[in-house]
């Protein structure tokens, strides 16, 4: 069991990590365009985040981590995402993937965290991209996965795949492999979130030891044994809502950044016009920007309300309640996307320059909002089913 920290210790550590995120924000903002052009996270930015200690946020104190809860995660990822959505996305996933590792048997995470307080690893939900079979002592795994966020700097890899039993029936499993067993493939030519460097990766008939494979449902339903091994409230939390925050906060941050940039750029244009003796009035943009601002504010309030509910109920929440969390997250994401697209359409010709942060926000949010966890038809469909007293159908809750 992990040691329970005092309330004062938790607050002090939380405040420290939030301050460190604020300290990192100028660097992320400065390097965002360079990372976008490079189509990958920059080494210096990764090292700066590593030095800050943020990657160890969700690691138990027993292994040198901070053992922080979702409220600290929420604030830090949002700060980073407002500076650069790609790095907010990558950092958030790196942080919460460290939480995933502690669902595996102790022998696994004791090896992973030997001599370090964090591990960097991508994790892919597209279980249909891989296939596995049981063999003596473990599994044989093959497949090629998209969306390998974190593969470039990763030292381990988590891959979802379908495990066939003796009768040919298949069940979703999650496998953990060292980076050297995986072939990364640079396929990352994409409109948005370019700086994440989310390459494909391939595994060709690799042996995975028994303890390094886990039923996906045990992972997402908190039935892996993690609640018996660690006392902290974080470790009583279902996995998919945590993933939902990791994916939604970068979009909220991108929207907040776009709104702020729009106001700064419009004020600058007004000042330039006045200096030349002309008069520029933002009256034609007032309604659009006000609606966008209120929409983004409402999206943040919605995400914070979900956060409060998740922290109150944890693994005691029903499947229906968990489905509602994800539906509300999805709605907040699409609100942010709609608002940013309105901001982009009102930013003038200069707003379409590739080096304009507003244009990057448009590209990033239109790309990231397509993540499977936010699928509109599935999330809204399930929410509607529940309103009619019918059970949800999406297993990602």
Tell me what you see in this structure.
Helix 8 packs antiparallel against helix 11 and helix 9 packs antiparallel against helix 10. Strands 1, 2, 3, 4, 5, 6, 7 and 8 form an 8-stranded mixed beta sheet that branches. This protein has 397 residues and is α+β, with helices and mostly antiparallel strands. The protein has 3 domains: 112 residues, Acyl-CoA dehydrogenase/oxidase, N-terminal domain (Butyryl-Coa Dehydrogenase, subunit A, domain 1, Orthogonal Bundle), CATH 1.10.540.10; 107 residues, Butyryl-CoA Dehydrogenase, subunit A, domain 2; 151 residues, Butyryl-CoA Dehydrogenase, subunit A, domain 3, CATH 1.20.140.
* CATH topology-level name of the largest domain: Butyryl-CoA Dehydrogenase, subunit A, domain 3
Mean residue pLDDT? 95
Largest sheet: 8 strands, mixed
| Alpha carbon gap, first and last residue | 27 Å
- Give the C-alpha Rg: 22 Å
- Give the H and E element order: HHHHHEEEEEEEEHHHHHHH
Tally the helices.
12
Total number of beta strands: 8
What fraction, in percent, of the residue positions are helical?
40-55%
> In terms of per-residue confidence, which ranges show pLDDT below 50 for 5 or more consecutive residues?
none
Label the CATH architecture of the largest domain: Up-down Bundle
Key descriptive features of the protein:
single chain; 397 residues; alpha+beta; Butyryl-Coa Dehydrogenase, subunit A, domain 1; Butyryl-CoA Dehydrogenase, subunit A, domain 2; Butyryl-CoA Dehydrogenase, subunit A, domain 3; 3 domains; 8-stranded mixed sheet; 12 helices
């Amino acid at each position: 069991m992990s040691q329970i920290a005092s309330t004062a210790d938790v607050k002090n550590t939380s405040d420290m990590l939030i301050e460190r995120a604020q300290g990192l924000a100028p660097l992320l903002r400065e390097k965002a365009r360079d990372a976008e052009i490079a189509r990958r996270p920059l080494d210096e930015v990764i090292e700066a985040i590593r030095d800050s200690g943020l990657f160890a946020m969700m690691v138990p104190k027993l292994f040198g981590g901070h053992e922080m809860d979702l409220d600290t995660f929420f604030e830090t990822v949002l700060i980073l995402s407002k500076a650069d959505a790609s790095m907010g996305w990558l950092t958030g996933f790196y942080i919460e993937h460290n939480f995933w590792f502690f669902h595996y048997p102790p022998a696994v995470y004791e090896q992973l965290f030997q001599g370090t307080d964090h591990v960097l690893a991508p994790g892919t939900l597209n279980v249909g991209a891989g296939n596995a079979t049981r063999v003596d002592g473990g599994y044989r795994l093959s497949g090629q996965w998209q969306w390998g966020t974190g593969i470039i700097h990763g030292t381990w890899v988590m891959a979802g795949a379908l495990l066939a039993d003796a009768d040919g029936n298949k069940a979703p499993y999650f496998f953990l492999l060292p980076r050297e067993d995986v072939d990364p493939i640079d396929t990352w030519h994409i409109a948005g979130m370019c700086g994440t460097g989310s390459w494909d990766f391939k595994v060709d008939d690799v042996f995975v030891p028994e303890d390094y494979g886990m039923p996906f449902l045990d992972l997402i339903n908190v039935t892996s044994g993690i609640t018996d091994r660690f006392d902290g409230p974080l470790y009583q939390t279902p996995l998919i809502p945590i993933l939902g925050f990791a994916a939604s906060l970068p979009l909220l941050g991108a929207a907040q950044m776009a709104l702020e940039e729009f106001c700064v750029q419009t004020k600058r244009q007004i000042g330039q016009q006045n200096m030349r003796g002309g008069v520029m009035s933002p009256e034609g943009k007032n309604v659009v920007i006000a609606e966008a601002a209120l929409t983004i504010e409402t999206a943040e309030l919605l995400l914070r309300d979900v956060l409060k509910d998740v922290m109150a109920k944890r693994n005691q929440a029903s499947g229906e309640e968990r489905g509602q969390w994800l539906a509300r997250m999805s709605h907040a994401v699409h609100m942010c996307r709609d608002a940013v697209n309105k901001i982009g359409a009102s930013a003038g010709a200069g707003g379409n320059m590739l080096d304009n942060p507003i244009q990057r926000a448009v590209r990033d949010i239109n790309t990231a909002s397509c993540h499977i966890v936010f699928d509109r038809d599935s999330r809204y469909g399930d929410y509607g089913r529940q309103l009619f007293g019918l059970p949800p159908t999406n297993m990602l809750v």
